[in-house]
Structure formats: structure tokens, C-alpha cells
Amino acid sequence: MPLQSSPIQAEITQSDGKSFEQLRRECLQKGVLFEDPDFPAKDSSLFFSESVPVNVEWKRPKEICSDPKFIVGGADRTDICQGQLGDCWLLAAIASLTLKPETMARVVPPDQEFDHRYAGIFHFQFWQHNRWLEVVVDDRLPTVRNKLIMLHSASYNEFWSALMEKAYAKLNGSYEALKGGSTMEAMEDFTGGVGEMYETKNAPGNLFSIMKKALDRGSMMGCSIDITSSAESEAKTTTGLVKGHAYSITGMEEVNYRGQTVQLIRIRNPWGQVEWNGPWSDKEWNYIDKSEQIRLQQNSTDDGEFWMQFEDFKRNYDKVEICNMTADSLTDDVKHQWEVSMFEGNWIRGSTAGGCRNYIDTFWTNPQFKLQLEDTDDDDDVCSVVIALMQKNRRKLRKEGLDLETIGFAVYKLGNMAPEEEDHLGKDFFRYNPSTARSKTYINMREVSERFTLPPGKYLLVPTTFQPHHEADFLIRIFSEKKAGIKFEGLSLSTCHSIINLMDVDNTGKLEFHEFKVFWEKMKKWIMLFLSFDTDRSGKMSSYELRSVLSAAGMRLNNQLLQLIGLRFADENYEIDFDDYLTCIVRLENMFRTFQALDKFKRGRVRMNMMQVKPLLHHT
Predict the structure, then answer these.
(1) 430, 459, 488 — which closes off a domain?
(2) What total of structural domains would you count in the chain?
(3) Same domain flag for 484 and 510
(4) pTM (two decimals)
């Protein structure tokens, strides 16, 4: 099952709410070229902390050359050459993207060119936090002496890659926001896939098989060499490799060399200038069959692309990043049907930013998610699950002095020690119960993901920052072979306000103990009522059951009111989650109580003046 939730059409992000087609049509009708007000051709779009070269000019492709093209001879990995920006991680991901034509067509729609439809506007689509977004840009690009200074193609008149980088910079706030990153981050934004990382020095023995299977399944891959200090960044090794630099992996093959099978890997450097000069960079090719040489395109003149023996690869590189289009294990020959559960949350200082387990006094305050893992009846009595924790919008926040938080998570087995009715487990549970599984490490990457094999049962997932009191928004994706029941322990602020308004009979703005006791009796009945209609324990009920559930709660409404309530609280799948259900019940209860107090003669109608209406609006 594809991981990306591919909508029919990506969401519009332009501030005026207009789509690419609308904007292009308007420009063509007016005879003007598009100028993007959301990402203007100004210094602020380039850098927020660095000074911009005084001789930078923003130019359209038709001002740079006489015959600009969007794509020349098909988009391929040789179209990506790095400019002055330190975003090789992005370039490596784009190079991998060009190897996947269907995915490429999604991210870089082919319906644009410098022909009669040209209006100075182009569009691209990126995945962000479980949504596909349409990003439009004008084609004014930063140049110095008529040369592009950022990402560009080896062909002087090809501009798709430069415009794509501009769109990605707009999505993240500026070009400077793209400096430094993980190849996997961009790969996920191009696919909606889920990432896995391997350390070559501590990898499974079948790493070559894992990586080859990944390529065969359409996964995107990158690799890099670690640095131990900032001085090593972009330092060249004696074998021609660059430390701290992102490379893309473009091929995996086995060849017969002098009577032995040799495993080879093909790698591309986005810089296109520095290549591996060790074994298989030259003479070894003379000892394999000519047809093999042709098949592997060894004689290709692509700058920056090279083959090396896999054992040399493991010795020289430190990390491999794989973005899988499905959650199938790369170590398993069996393909599974995967379900994905998602939830968004946040760490808030003084409330839910408790830090990691080292800080036991605050760890328990972190957001908690209860999971129900079910056996898939494949006779192994275990459940496969992939948990991916992603922090949101951190590149955009760089201009405010914020960067990636160091994040991770822990999973706890729930049993008799943690009664199901407990909404939020306290400090003692975590003090006396070790985690069943956890992320390998806490790291300052956008996403941390791990694959686990766990017995069926109930679990508690606790996502955290490493340090307490650090704030961030996050997205959790849980991939399981059967849909994992997921329950967020908490109600929205709006629902809490509604509850207080309902039960606060003395108007103190808070609930006294006797008021809370009355509310809790109501709450237990409402929970049981919801569960009776939430038959699959998904945390949602069908909006078609609204009449029945309200009737069971003693509230009988006409069709018009039911339709209005359904429109207000149901999502696009005609489902109502528990939080919205509770808000609906509480507000209706409040309205019924207010009406009955005003309808002193039980006539079924009341007359109200403005002073009586205002409190009613406030409490509902």
C-alpha cells in the first residue's frame, strides 16, 4: 500500500487561494508575467542572516538565454548541479527522484513550458505532514553576471531544477533555510514515504541485498561520510570522496570479475566534479565482459557518477538513508498490506514538554498515545510496526533562531499495572516500568523512525524532546500490518471550555469538587454511549449515527438541526472523533438546560432579549 495519502489534487498554498491554472490564465488574459507576492524577488527570499552579494540580479530564463526550456531531453540526474548554497542533501534527493518517472511527474508536473502558455509562472507539488501541497513560483531566479548562482542544470537553457529548488525554498521560507540537512528529509517530501537509516559499520550482513531490494521496489537512497568537526565539512579524502557531503545511490549490481562475483554500487555526487579514484574507477572494467560494460553504462561520461565495490563503499561511507514507498521490510521477501495511523501534537513548555526518561520528574507529562496491536494471523504471534516521529516546520523557524530539536520516543507495554481507565499515566508508572522498545537514539533530525516486532497487546507510545521545556509541533505515523488502534490522551481547549461552562453553575470560572462529581457521572455515560457506536475502536463514529446517539442521550432534534450539527462536527469521511462528539454533547446539554430554564411555562418556545442571548452565545 502506498504510504503517501495521494489526494486527487494538492492543496493550494498561495495566499490569495488561487491555483496555478487560475493564476496562469489571469496572466495570459492580462498579457503580464506573474510576480509572486508570497516569495518576492528580494534579498529576504535569499537569506535571513547572511548578507546578499551586491551584484545579485533576479532574472527570468528568457533574460538569461534566448531559447529557454523547462526540460531538455527528459529530466535526469545530470540536470542537477550545485550552486553556492550548501544544500547537497536536496540535490542528492532530486537526483534520486529523476530515476522514478511516475513520482517525478507528481512533484514536477509536465504541463509547463516556455511556449504559448508561458506566463512567468511554474508549479511543483511537495508532501508536508501528510498533505500534498501545490507551490507556485514566478521564474525570476538569482544570478550574478547572467549566471545562476543556485542549483542549475548542466544544460545552459534547462530550468526545471532551478525552479524546483526555488519552490522548495519558498515552502521552507527562504533559500538559506535549505542549508544543511538529511537527504531522507527531501526524499520524504517528494514521496510521502517513510525513512530508514543504516550505519555501514554496524549494518546487517545482508546490507547489499537490503539496498538492492530497496532500489528494485522504487525506494530512493542516499549516503554520506560523517565528520568529527566543522573543519572536516566538505573536506576531500585521498580517494576523491567528500566528507559531510550528501550523495545519491543510483544503482546496485553484481558482475563476474576474474571468475568471482563482485558486488558494485553506483553513486552520484551532486557537485559533479569530485569522484572516487579507487578500485573500479578505471582499469578493473577491462576484466569484465564487454556486454556487461555496456549494460552498466560504465563508459558514460556523466560527471560525478561512479561505481565502486560494495566492500569499499562500507569502509568509506558511514550512513545509508532509504526512503521506502511502502512500509514493507527490506529484509522480508513477503509483501504485506499496511495500515497507517497518524496524529499531530506538540510539546509545550510548562505543560507537555517533559523531556526524555532521564528527567523522570517531568517525563510523564509528555503526550501519551495508547496503541492496540493485533496479530495478523500469520502464525508468528507477533506484530510488525513502524513508528515514525516527525517534528514540523523547523526550517521555517530558523529565521526566528530555532532549529531542529533532538527527539526520540519510547514504547511501554500496558498490562494490569496500568488500568485502562487511567487517562494519563503518572510518574510512578515510568519509575517502575522499563520501556519495551524505543528509538535507537535521540537525534536532531526532522524524523526518527524505527521498525519493531512486538507481541499483540496494548502499548503506550511517548514521544519526547531530549531536554525538557523545549517546544515543537510533531506528527506521528504508525504503520502496522493491521490498523493500530490509537488514542490521544487529552481533550481540546475548546472542549474543556465547554465542559466548564456547562458545569460551572456558580460562574466562578472553575469546577468545584461537587460540580466535577456531577460532570464525571455524565461523562461516564457519554463515554459508554460513544463506545457503543465506535464498534471498530477507531476513536471515531459515523455521522450517520448522530440521530441515534443523540436520541440515546435524551436529545431529540429535527432534521435541519441534525444536518447543521453534522456539517459542523463531521470530517471529510463523515466521521466524528471523540473530542468533537464530546463538544457536541456538552454544548447541546448546555443549550437544553438554558432553554428549559427560560421556558418557565413549558410551551416549547421562549422569547429572549439581547441580555439573555449574550450569555447563551458565550456558553455554547
Answers:
(1) 488
(2) 4
(3) no
(4) 0.71
Hey, what amino acid is at 306?
A: F
Q: Is 333 helix (H, G, I), strand (E, B) or coil?
A: coil
Alpha carbon distance 149, 49 (integer Å): 18
CA 607: distance to chain centroid?
Answer: 52
| Claim to verify: residue 409 and residue 556 sit in the same structural domain | no
Active-site residue (options: 172, 269, 324, 590): 269
- Sheet order of strands, 383-391 included: 339-347, 472-480, 383-391, 447-454
State the Cα–Cα distance between residues 172 and 417, nearest whole angstrom.
45
Whether 588 and 478 map to the same domain: the answer is: no
Which residue segment(s) compose the domain that 596 sits in? 493-619
Of 27, 81, 88, 383, the catalytic one is 88
The predicted-structure confidence for 400-448, as pLDDT tens digits, reads as follows 999 999 999 999 999 765 555 456 888 999 999 999 999 999 999 999 9
| Domain end (from 136, 166, 191) | 191
470 is catalytic: no
Would you call 245 a catalytic residue per the annotation? yes
Q: What is the pLDDT of residues 110-159, one digit of tens each?
A: 889 999 999 999 999 999 988 899 999 999 999 999 999 999 998 999 99
Of residues 27, 152, 172, 245, which has the active-site annotation?
245
> d(Cα 230, Cα 420) in Å, to the nearest integer?
49
Q: Chain-centre distance of CA 334, in angstroms?
A: 26
